[in-house]
Design brief:
This protein has about 600 residues and is mainly beta. Helix content is about 5%, strand content about 65%. A hairpin with a 3-residue loop joins β10 (about 165-180) and β11 (about 185-200).
Length: about 600
């Protein structure tokens, strides 16, 4: 689940959106790993929450510009402040790039605003407004191994033939009202509403679009969504120890119009052609939850939560012709999930913890949107459920050193995996079981001479527990290829490592940091037939800060991939024509500055 200032960026079907979140005004990002809180539903992966900064007293205007490799530029301005009880931050930006690869240009316009005021001494109201517009984002498509090794900057010919691209626009508004009731009770009411338009031109061949039951090569989506969450929190005492209990209800609704069109007219490709799909989809969830945190002694903190989730999906097919029957239908998903956690304070500086949680993840509308035989929602998909266990330690070593270490295990039933994938269209299936187990270690240490070192290491074994059948090409109506138990889950590296050495000059405001990142090989398909090779890269960043008569100036220079290493930044899992590889940029830079003035 993804949140921006307490407002969901994840839709009711579980599909997260981050394009409308502007990091230019973000103060911090919090991550809750795993389903260890009953306050959030329909997700087995945890919570990412982005918080916009607060305005400082008075008023501050901050324009900024950044320029970089591949024609990259970002221009933005931020207005923030606090006056007469109103705290506000308004941030607008425009981003352009030609892209590292051919046919990979993109642009994005963002607006993010947060307004907060107190209608009374015991209440607070926050308004959050987000908008994003991304027209005609080009897609160079994945490459085969031979093409990737020959020229990683190239786009596939199909990207040019069909002018493969995607346009997205979204507007969202959210309200969060907090009311203190007495000494220990707080009521929270959150409401949000949004609209999202998407049109995507895919690289589906003309011949594949001719049959009546096929959905064409253009996806046209219109989504309207809204939701409400009402929560009551009580802080009191139980058996001499503080206890906090939260109870609430949550309702979300999504209405989607999904249309498909051919991506050709006669011999002309990459244009909007005849309609091939037209359906109205609806999904809503209704959840109730309860969570309690209790500290029976100064050394112990216990947490327990329970959530009842119900998700309903319905589809009405408006495109019924000869050879393409009525694909209307509906399905329901429901689950009761729980979480338990305990923290033991060994000392003021060392905490040991253990957490268990049950995850519940329904298939998104994108995962449901195609069947192996063509268009129409894949109502045969089931939600996946998982048992998550984590044990760890968090320690403060000395006055300026932090250490985190954890081991974890996730066992999932009915995991949703890719059955076939070609031209940007994926069909999904459930597999019986998967297992993820591993360890994480991170350290943040201050060193003499204003140096600081940070490092993080993850070791992860992610495998299929049981054998199953999959597709290796397209079209594929019946999977016949065996995936063996013990195969690695594709797209997931076994090890990742990050390290940073930084130095700050306290008098001049100069900062320098050298980063290193290493990732092990990543398998491209369920059969583990090929893999993107392991890589290690280094990055450099420099920053300067000055203050002059009410003005504050910041300049930065960032150089990524110092060694100009050639590597695949991501893979397209189970791509039916072996176009697995998406190359990452070579050596590139970003140079920028901001100037702010306080009134």
């Amino acid at each position: 689940r993804i949140y921006a200032d307490g407002i969901p960026a994840t839709m009711p079907d579980g599909q997260g959106q981050v394009s409308h979140i502007d990091l230019g005004s973000a103060a911090r990002i919090e991550v809750l790993r795993g389903p260890f809180s009953a306050l959030y539903g329909n997700s087995s992966g945890g919570v990412i929450s982005v918080f916009t900064e607060d305005g400082a007293p008075g008023m501050r205007l901050e324009p900024g510009i950044a320029l970089g490799s591949y024609g990259t530029q970002r221009i933005g301005a931020k207005l923030s402040g606090e006056r007469s009880g109103l705290n506000y931050v308004v941030d607008a930006s425009t981003f352009r790039t030609d892209g590292y690869r051919d046919h990979s240009a993109a642009k994005r316009e963002n607006l993010n605003a947060k307004l907060r005021w107190a209608p009374a001494a015991d209440s607070r109201l926050t308004l959050v407004v987000n908008s994003v517009d991304m027209p005609d984002i080009q897609d160079p498509l994945g490459l085969t191994r031979a093409a990737y090794e020959a020229n990683p900057k190239q786009a596939r010919q199909a990207a040019y033939d069909f002018d493969v691209r995607k346009s997205v626009s979204q507007q969202q508004v959210g309200l969060n009202y907090e009311l203190k009731v007495g000494a220990g009770d707080t009521a929270n009411l959150m409401f949000y509403r949004g609209h999202r338009d998407t049109i995507q031109f895919q690289a589906i061949t003309v011949g594949a679009q001719v049959p009546a039951g096929q959905a064409g090569g253009v996806i046209d989506l219109v989504r309207d969504y809204w939701g409400v969450d009402l929560r009551w929190t009580h802080r009191g005492e139980l058996a001499g120890g503080p206890v906090t209990t939260s109870a609430g209800i949550n309702y979300d609704m999504l209405n989607e119009t999904r249309r498909g069109f051919q991506n050709f007219i006669g011999a002309q490709l990459g244009v909007l052609g005849r309609i091939k799909r037209d359906e109205a989809n609806e999904i809503f969830n209704f959840d109730q939850y309860l969570q309690t945190q209790w500290e029976p002694t100064p050394r112990w903190r216990l947490v327990a939560g329970l959530r009842n989730s119900m998700v309903k999906i319905a589809s009405k097919d408006h495109f019924v012709i000869t050879g393409n029957g009525d694909d209307s239908g509906r399905t329901d998903f429901a689950a009761v999930t729980g979480s338990l956690g305990a923290t033991f304070r060994v000392s003021d500086a060392v905490n040991l913890y253990a957490a268990w949680g049950r995850g519940f993840e329904t298939p998104t509308l994108n995962e449901l949107s195609y069947r192996a035989g063509g268009a129409g929602l894949n109502f045969g998909l089931r939600p996946s459920t998982s048992d998550n266990l984590e044990l760890g330690v968090k320690a403060a070593l000395g006055s300026d050193a932090l250490l985190n270490a954890a081991i974890f295990q996730v066992k999932t039933r009915d995991e949703l995996v890719t059955l076939s994938n070609s031209g940007g269209r994926a069909v999904f299936q459930n597999v019986a079981g998967t297992k993820r187990e591993g360890a994480e270690l991170s350290a943040d240490v201050g060193l003499p001479g204003n140096f600081r070192v940070y490092g993080a290491l993850t070791a992860l074994r992610a495998v299929y527990d049981q054998a199953f059948l999959t597709c290796t090409g397209t079209p594929c109506l019946i999977p016949t290829t065996v995936v063996n138990a013990g195969n690695r889950i594709p797209g997931v590296p076994a090890t990742t490592a990050f390290a940073e050495l930084s130095w700050r000059h306290p008098a001049s405001g100069f900062l320098a940091a050298l980063e290193a990142r290493a990732v092990s090989k990543v398998y491209v398909d369920d059969r583990n037939s090929d893999a993107a090779e392991a890589y290690a890269i280094a990055n450099l960043r420099l920053g300067f800060e000055q203050a002059r008569s009410g003005w504050k100036f910041k300049e930065f220079l960032r150089i990524d991939n110092l060694g100009d290493r050639k590597y695949a930044g991501s893979v397209i899992v189970n791509e039916g024509n072996s176009n697995f590889f998406e190359p990452a940029p070579g050596r590139n830079y970003l140079l920028g500055m901001t100037a702010s003035y306080g009134f």
